[in-house]
Write a structure and sequence with these properties.
There is one protein chain. The protein is globular and about 45 Å long. The longest helix is centred in the middle third of the chain and has 29 residues, at 105-133. The N and C termini lie far apart (42 Å). It has helices at 2-5, 20-31, 43-51, 66-80, 105-133, 155-175, 201-211, 220-231, 249-252; strands at residues 11-15, 35-40, 57-60, 85-88, 138-142, 181-187, 242-245. It is built from 9 helices and 7 strands. A 7-stranded parallel β-sheet has the order 3-2-1-4-5-6-7, sandwiched between helices. By secondary structure, it is of the alpha/beta class. The chain has one domain (2-248): Rossmann fold.
Length: 261
């Protein structure tokens, strides 16, 4: 069992690596022996996270720019000669409170660019690197519960994340014969320090005790664990799968954490 978990000798790229889920994923991958590139549009934060993790490489990249995605993967290949694991955490643009009829084209464009197109570019670059270095790699995309149910007040976000899941399914079918696995992790809302969405930390905890079957908010480390499971040999014959990491909340509650329904 230990060898199934080990990532010794493997390399990983985590986009959004300086964020809450991203940094937890970087630490989890590194703890199992992987060398990790911490890629983020905020270069200073990427450097701060990398400085705390043995063997981590910080990299500043805006994954909405194709040239920066290519440079990111080229750097990883020149550094390590291979890419075994690609994780896409970048995304955003959740609740805006607008109905579909009120949502401007700019919101749809922003959501698709940040939640779908950026991941498509990264997946393509990861896969090309994996194929060129002859590794049986793993790609993990991060979606949202908004992709799996109606998402009033966040239609552009939900649609772009739903498209990401469908894209991952197709990618899994196309890359499976070439030894590359592609899967999706769907986390519930993970509170960040200073965030007001969902209420204060105390309000979020109280809501979770009432509405989440497992009785607490989702932690970044919970999500990182699911991502690492897909990256490791524990799931070596799993591809095109979606794992929801939310303590059971999607089964019983609405998408809006402030709702009492």
């Amino acid at each position: 069992m230990t060898e199934l978990c080990s990532l010794e000798g493997q390399t990983a790229i985590v986009t959004g690596g300086a964020g809450n889920i991203g940094s937890a994923t970087v630490r989890a991958l590194a703890s199992l022996g992987a060398k990790v590139m911490v890629a983020d549009h905020d270069g200073e934060r990427a450097s701060a996270v990398a400085s705390e993790v043995d063997g981590a490489l910080p990299w500043s990249a805006d994954v909405t720019r194709p040239d920066e995605v290519d440079a990111m993967v080229t750097r990883a290949m020149s550094m390590w000669g291979r890419v075994d694991i690609g994780v896409n955490v970048v995304g955003g643009g959740g609740v805006n409170g607008r109905t579909i009829l009120e949502t401007p084209d700019e919101d749809w464009q922003w959501g698709m660019e940040h939640n779908l197109y950026s991941a498509i570019r990264c997946c393509r670059a990861y896969a090309e690197a994996m194929l060129s270095s002859g590794v049986a790699g793993s790609i993990v995309n991060v979606a949202s519960p908004a992709a799996l149910r109606a998402a009033p007040g966040m239609a552009a976000y939900g649609a772009s994340k739903a498209a990401l899941i469908n894209f991952t399914w197709t990618l899994a079918v196309e890359l499976g014969p070439r030894g590359i696995r592609c899967n999706v992790v769907v986390p519930a809302f993970v509170p960040n320090p200073g965030m007001s969405w969902g209420g204060s930390p105390e309000e979020q905890d109280a809501l979770a005790r009432r509405s989440v079957p497992m009785g607490r908010v989702t932690r970044a480390e919970d999500v990182a664990g699911a991502i690492v499971a897909f990256a490791s040999g524990l799931t070596s014959f799993c591809t095109g799968q979606v794992v929801v990491c939310d303590g059971g909340r999607l089964l019983t509650n609405p998408i809006n954490p402030g709702s009492s329904g």
